[in-house]
Specification:
The chain is an alpha+beta fold. 17% of the residues lie in helices and 31% in strands. It is built from 7 helices and 28 strands. A 6-stranded mixed β-sheet has the order 16-13-17-21-20-18, with helices on both faces. The N and C termini lie far apart (62 Å).
């Protein structure tokens, strides 16, 4: 006789939602206040610490958007006399006589009397002069002063991450130095007697520490300095020594040692240093999370020991916390909605993030499928993935063809421009 299957409910009435946890984190986090004035060439990835207004209009003069001829529209029914040239960086005469034109290149100053630029392809040159083959309208191919920005305009707001486009904008306005917040200092450690650094031989019951390499790569940022505190043994003394070495850090992140086992000393030690909260989060993987202040102005995250759980809690909690401490607030782009290629299983009771691969077929249609076993220790499923599928709290899974919410890993990265 086949017994009916029973659905296991993962709900925990004491667990916080992701939104509740993020709100508490933002309310408790200290923010950077120290400001440095640095050269713009060194400012990539840093956070702007003050509003920047334009010191000038850009472009500062009427400029040509094409290679061709600066003309008076009213004269273009006749052959025009060629009267000089205006090259980028080498302007010609400001005056343009009636019945004449001026050779001009892209970016060059347009003479005051010209009201259009005719691109070279729409003209014909001869010994008699220049004939316009396609009649222009006034203003054609002329960039007016201030068409990009006007003097006094707000260019960049405080709290903006300075990427390539922001730095190009500053350069275009002649700005060579910028106020930024100092770099955030993050101390990182792994806890556990069973951990060994890769490259060393393993003894019975030992495993290699994958979390620090994982987190070091996830935390790599031009505005962050990471202090590697190594592997910490399961003892109160060892943990106190590591925290002492991290006293100058703005943020301490540990992985492992945040459950309720006898060897989990993180909470015990930290509560003697500051205000620590041990939370259960209504998500999978990554239910246990420790957060609080391990010093007057030092934030602390204690992440789960399983590497996939550590990765997910870093994506959803640590990286947003770092952005907040740097004076930024960067919401995730909306999730994609893609059809599913595989059947997914889930117990109701908490939000679940499953590692997945989104791919495009020969017709250009996107879909998403699982990377396989979803246990939180299975790093191969993370290595194969390029996205996460979000299954809602009450969901019991999804069937082939269902549309599911998908977060590409690129959603969690800083934009290139």
């Amino acid at each position: 006789m086949k017994l009916p299957s029973r659905v296991i409910n993962d709900a925990d009435p004491s667990a916080l939602s992701i939104e509740q946890a993020l709100l508490r984190i933002r309310e408790a986090l200290p923010r950077l206040t120290d400001v440095q004035c640095i050269d713009c060439v060194d400012a990539a990835g840093r956070t702007c610490a003050s509003d920047i207004h334009s010191p000038m209009s850009v472009p500062p003069f009427r400029a040509s958007a094409m290679d061709g001829y600066a003309v008076r529209v009213a004269d273009c029914q006749q052959t025009l006399k060629l009267d000089g040239e205006s090259m980028a960086g080498h302007p010609g005469s400001d005056r343009l006589e009636v019945g004449s034109c001026q050779r001009i290149t892209t970016g060059a100053r347009v003479p005051d009397d010209a009201d259009a630029v005719v691109q070279q392809e729409n003209t014909e040159c001869s010994e008699d002069g220049v004939t316009v083959r396609v009649m222009p309208e006034p203003g054609l191919h002329i960039r007016n002063p201030g068409s990009d920005s006007r003097k006094g305009d707000l260019l960049i707001s405080s709290g903006t991450r300075l990427g390539p486009s922001q730095l190009a904008l500053l350069a275009a306005h002649g700005i060579s130095r910028v106020d930024v917040y100092r770099k955030l200092v993050v101390a990182l450690l792994s806890t556990g007697d069973e951990l060994r650094k890769p490259g060393n031989a393993l003894e019975a019951g030992q495993i290699y520490d994958a979390n620090r390499p994982l987190l070091q790569a996830m935390l790599r940022d031009d505005a962050v300095d990471v202090i590697d505190l190594g592997i910490c043994k399961d003892s109160v003394t060892a943990l106190k020594q590591r925290l002492s070495a991290a006293q100058d850090a703005d943020l301490v992140i540990s992985s492992g040692g945040v459950s309720v086992g006898d060897a989990d000393h993180v909470r015990q030690v930290l509560e003697s240093h500051g205000q620590i909260n041990f939370w259960k989060i209504a998500m999978k993987p990554g239910r246990p999370l420790t957060f609080g202040l391990s010093g007057p102005e030092q934030a602390y995250f204690g992440l789960p020991g399983n590497p996939v759980s550590a990765a997910l809690t870093t994506l959803l909690f640590v990286l947003p916390a770092i952005r907040h401490m740097q004076g930024r607030s960067l919401a995730l782009p909306p999730a994609l909605n893609l059809p599913l290629m595989d059947e997914l299983h889930k117990n109701p009771g908490r939000v679940e993030y499953q590692r997945a691969v989104m791919q495009q077929d020969s017709t250009g249609t996107w879909s998403v499928g699982t990377t396989g076993l979803q246990d939180s220790h299975v790093l191969t499923s993370l290595h194969k993935a390029n996205c996460l599928i979000e299954l809602e709290t009450d969901s019991r899974g999804a069937s082939v063809g269902d549309h599911v919410l998908v977060y590409p890993f690129t959603h969690f990265a800083e934009p290139l421009l």
